[in-house]
Amino acid sequence: MSTQKRKLIEVGIPLEVINKQSAHEKSVPRKGHPATMHLWWARRPLAAARGLLFAQLVDDPSAHPDKFPTEEAVTEERKYLHELIEQLVVWENSNDEELLARAHHKILESTDGNPPPILDPFAGGGTIPLEAQRLGLEAYASDLNPVAVLINTALVELPPKFNGRPPVHPDVAREQLGSPWPRAAGLAEDVRRYGQWMRVEAENRIGHLYPKATLADGSQATVVAWIWGRTVTCPNPACGIAIPLVRSWWLSKKKGKEAYLVPSVGDRSVRFTVGNDIEAAPTKDTDGTVGRNGAACVGCGAAVGRNHIKAEGRAGRMGSQLLATVAEGRRTRIYLAPTPEHEVAAQVPRPTEVPDQELGYHPKDIWTPLYGLTTFADLFTARQLTALTTFSDLVIEARGHVLADAMAAGMPEGDRLATGGAGAAAYADAVATYLAFANSKAADWSSSLCSWISPIQGVRDTFARQALPMVWDYAEVNLFSNSVGNIGTHTAWVADSVERLPAGATAVHVDQADAAQRPLRGLICTDPPYYDNIGYSDLSDFFYVWLRRSLKSVHPDLLSTMLVPKADELVANPFRHDGKEGAHQFFEDGFREVFRRARESALPDFPITVYYAFKQSEITEDGQASTGWETLLEGMIRAGWSVTATWPLRSERGGRMISVGTNALASSIVLVLRPQPENAPRTDRRRFITTLKAELPKALEELQQGAIAPVDMPQAAIGPGMAVFSRYSAVLADDGSKMRVRTALALINEVLDEVLTEQEGDFDPDTRFAIAWFRQYGFDPGAYGDADNIARARNASIDHLDQAGILTSRAGKVALLAPDELDVDHDPATDPSISVWEVVMRLTHALSTQGIPAASSLLGRVPAQVEPDLCKELAFLLFSIAEDRRQTKIAVEFNALGTAWNEIAAAAPVAVTQPSPAMFDYEEQ
User: Fold this and answer.
1) For residue 295, what is the enclosing H or E element?
2) What is the pTM of this model?
3) Distance between CA 668 and CA 649 in Å, rounded?
4) pLDDT tens digits along 7-29
5) Burial level of 245, CB count in 10 A (0-12/13-18/19+)?
6) How close are the terminal C-alpha atoms of the chain, in Å?
7) Could you give the CA distance from residue 536 to residue 647 in angstroms, rounded to a whole number?
8) What letters, b where the CB count within 10 A reaches 16 and e where it falls short, cover 526-536?
């Protein structure tokens, strides 16, 4: 049997660059990004999926001693592969064909020209199959949820089917038709054209329901949104007014453009005007009527409990009142008091064919049923329902126009999309699918769960968080404006996403299937649901009811049920599975069964990858991971898998360094696993620890070759540690029982600390003293006698350290100098005895004050006898010590140095010839 070749993902990846690009990709919505086509929850960034898929398939250079016979050759090739990943994960490079071809060539080199198909049995938002297609790989994607299946179909099946075809809309100029239409650009153009037709046609039918606003000077302005407040009757019999339930009176907090609601009570009713005087503005104590425990009557001041509000809602007595109208101005918003015209315009009959399916019972995520909003139609105003049903009907009408125009353009009718067609009928189905997605986006931005955001003068959509919360004062957008939430913008976002999709020739097969039942043949890369993080089926019903209304004839099998299937959904829903214990048992049994079956058909030459949705709440106060993480590892090992790597992924940066639990910054963790051999041996605790000590130092060295942040090192180091633990069928404790994962994790962390401590022996005497002193005192003073004893034990001298300028020794006290206290005029090139400690302190200061160029310039002037790799090791070690001491500020600075090290070192050889800004004298001569 041939020896397994280690893959790059099992050795080292440029983790920090992947994380940085993931955060960049998710920082703001970008037109053309696949995530903007249709909402799905907890999508993984494309950057991470693309880079990790590549590393999952490509051999680490150490697996080819014939090609790379020396350590230097291995390091050089690994560096090249890391640089290739660093280019691949940049969002702006997503469709760089030359770069993707280089990546595909490397994959072919490592797979004998025949890469395995990628399998994602929990495809969700489609990130993994899309990136597999982008890398030129065959893939299989499935999900039990029909909304997820439809999203995957739109991402990876439809664009290749119509790749390179010109648009069929008759208004596209003939000269444009002669131009090339790469990928799915023609399909995208038709989505735009027929979407524009829908908008015009809808405005002709219902535009009168959206009147313009009359300004103070008598001119007319387009309305951006109407702001409404729900109302309940005051329980005080002497009052009895309809209380507006408003969380905040503020309309705009923008400096110089402040605006707020001013309520006034008379004739047993409440009226509103708009105030602008900042002196009379609402305060924290007077802002709004609704709080955590209920509301206060704006008329009599009576307290109104939550139970009263719920009872009024369930009895059908919760109403609504127009609070203000927001109009478009010249580069500004104009806030107007309510008028009868605008109140009457919203009083339209409720349409008959509306989604009246019941909302799911999930009090954690779905709050509205407690207040009487029990069906999906209840979440919308009558005007919103009229608009959405109109657009829904127009999707099918638009499909008829597409079909006729496609056939007029010479395309044969062919079979429908659902039966595998690729002619005019299937093309019309595809365009209709994307137009229905635009209506999904309109529903997200046009429900009574949208709210007004006064600091930015904008609208918060329904799913600003992963729930359907109760919203008291809501914003109803004008779908025919040119501002936020308009239908034209929704169509444009969908079309732009279609245009940027890879539309590759490589097949991706999408099916609706239960992961517990479907065949699991292929190389698994998947992001499964985890416990009760998100109730996908209950939440996705919000979109399903509208998609089904528009597309039931287009996707008859997929949209056959009234709501999304729920019974077999692999999430821990306590309301579906007899409480918390039953829900967790259901999830753990199902999860373990999926990966037990996956083990039976696993490919022997490749590791699988599983994303784990890590939560910060899974870190306890003493820094221990809670049972969620341990259960996952335990379940995988019991299912017959060995862990070979763990990679913490961060798609956004926390606002502060979290010192309790070094893996708390990870938003998810990628597990890399291989099948455990059937004849895996047993071992005991002593041999397990001995093996850890023998293998972890080399593994850490390989990890540090990638751009990995010190804050991520403890979590990443769990990978090689668990690789040792899980290669055995059992590790026996001293009493003969099988060691649990929790115990193994604790031992791995202990050995990791020992390895980091042992690295201190590689440093010069001055650095070893400084480390020991920093561990005990930080940058605070300590007794001279203690310092002298520590120095002598390390063959160092306090007097020499004082003269070197890294500490002060005065009046019987010794203190290390912090990076910002060192002599800034010191030139390391003139100091042949400079220590690694001093270099790291100076680099830390240069990086934090002047950035990477200055740090590179400084490193380039360090004498050759100081090994750069030792400086990097010290940055990692000092981060760990500072974090243990809870010295957040300096920990952040050491983390930054370790993270940026590869970039600093790469520029150092040339930077020395370019003096840093600190070396210039800017004073006039």
Assistant:
1) strand 294-296
2) 0.84
3) 5
4) 999 998 998 889 888 888 876 55
5) buried
6) 76
7) 25
8) bbbbbbbebbb
